[in-house]
Amino acid sequence: MFDELSEKLDAVFARLRGRGVLNEADIKEGLREVRRVLLEADVNFQLTREFLERVEQKAAGVAALRSVSPGQQLVKIVHDELATMLGERREGLRIGTVPPGVVLMVGLQGSGKTTTAAKLARKLKAEGRPTRLVAADVYRPAAIDQLETLGKQIDVPVYVDRESKDVVKIAKRGIEDAHRARDRVVIVDTAGRLQIDDEMMNELRRLKEAVKPDEILFVADGMTGQDAVKIAKGFDDALGITGVVLTKMDGDARGGAALSIYGVTKKPIKYIGVGEKVDALEEFHPERMAGRILQMGDIVTLVEKAQESFDTEESKKLEKKVRREGLDLEDFLSSMRQMQKLGPLEGVLKMLPGVNAKMLKQANMDPKRMKHVEAIVLSMTVEERKNPHVLNGSRRARIAKGCGRPVSDVNRLLEQFREMQKMMKKMGKGGRMGFPGMPGMTPPRMGR
Asked: Terminal CA-to-CA distance of the chain, rounded, Å?
């Protein structure tokens, strides 16, 4: 997500920071480069021009600064204006006080509406808001089956009527079911349609009039760039959307849609899809996203993901045990499984300040290596995990054979584990320890 854009912007600002002292000509040259990078990222031309005018206006006088690095100050101005372009502040779902609140999911076919509806239902349920899905896509073959399957996967009820083709009637009955069950939210999954298809758009207008939704979320494929922005504008003009969900953002290295859609529609991006799994839906925070684009990290989101993913009681028990008895491979396996709940390690590292795309390329983070590490540990007996010092040559050979990896991999893991034990002892003296690192990976160097 935003890798290409981040890398190019980082290169521009690295040159400016490296000069130490800036003059007005340096700043103008830098902003010309920023303009080129944004246009290459498929950001709307008019928005790019307005963005640079605001930055240039705020940057007047930056070259004369002595107390703060002019380069860093310019980055701060660009960060603030990027956040403004992305929507200024976080906008959550606006659900009325009288349940059930209704959310309509609309957009083109293939944009990911059905999967996004399930992801959102899972998220709302986890927040303590009982949610029901309504299968109102009566046109796409297997759409109902797909929603039912996802509903079972996330343990959320799905209202289905296979006999009727009346979308309004289906939605109304689903809402009545939700009311009887005292659900807080109903998410209606509608059929994909083009904004120029009058008949299909009229169906959505009738649906809107009948169920009076609290939210109409336009689901857009982030990888389609400016096309997504134009289509969002068309849906907004026809229907009056209240927010946007950008999907497939994990595959969009440029980010043109995310950087343009709010500026064109003035409708907030509420969520972004960052993967295919049902938990791969993130709340969209403009300020945090601007920080990620400029490689300032996003520690707040990382902490929130950790709080959501980690078992707090298990973490506390593990920490007490490690303080008392030291770290063994059983503890490592437990902590590694907790860490994996955060998602791909590359995504976690991107949220750390100072980690850029170049560093991540240098780091060896093949997800298969983590599976290999787990397989090695699982091939050990409980005694061997608790007392790694008993692992002589014959035991290591048996473990290697059991997990299908060479003995050298087993040796490398044990060597890295010993280093980690030393590190944990030092950290234990300094206070809270947190989770151990990950053997099987070469970490990126943190210097620029």
From this structure: 21
* Kind of pairing between the strands at 131-136 and 185-190: parallel
Kindly state the DSSP code that residue 389 receives in the 8-state scheme: G
Local structure of residue 223 (DSSP, 8 states): G
Q: Name the CA dihedral angle for 356, 360, 362, 367, rounded to a multiple of 10 degrees.
A: 180
Alpha helices by DSSP H, listed for 240-381, are 256-265, 286-293, 299-309, 312-325, 329-340, 345-350, 357-362, 367-378
Q: Are 261 and 249 in contact (CB under 8 A)?
A: no
CA separation (Å) from 338 to 255, 372, 391, 418, 419? Answer: 30, 17, 26, 21, 21
* Partner residues linked to 10 by β-bridges: none
Tell me the CB-side half-sphere exposure of residue 188, using CA atoms within 13 A: 33
| Residue in 350, 330, 348, 402 with CA at minimum distance from that of residue 372 | 402
Q: Identify the CA nearest to 256 among candidates 217, 223, 234.
A: 223
What number of residues does the chain have? 448
Q: Rounded distance, CA 185 to CA 197, Å?
A: 29
Fold classified for 3-86: Four Helix Bundle (Hemerythrin (Met), subunit A) (1.20.120)
Count of beta carbons in the 10 Å neighbourhood of residue 311: 13
Q: Both tokens of residue 19?
A: 């000069």
Query: What does the pLDDT read at residue 371?
Result: 81
* H-state helical runs in 326-366: 329-340, 345-350, 357-362
Q: What is the pLDDT of residues 264-289, one digit of tens each?
A: 889 999 999 988 889 889 899 888 88
Fold category of 304-430 in CATH: 434 Repressor (Amino-terminal Domain) (1.10.260)
Nearest to 399 by CA among 74, 412, 302: 412
CATH topology (fold) of 101-284: Rossmann fold (3.40.50)
Q: Domain ranges in the chain?
A: 3-86, 101-284, 304-430
Please calculate the CA angle 348-219-150 and round it to the nearest 5 degrees.
70
Lowest mean pLDDT among 207-216, 358-367, 375-384, 396-405: 358-367
Burial per residue of 330-351, b for 16 or more beta-carbon CB atoms within 10 angstroms, e otherwise: bbbbbbbebbbebbebebbbbb
CA–CA separation, 217 and 237 (whole Å) = 14
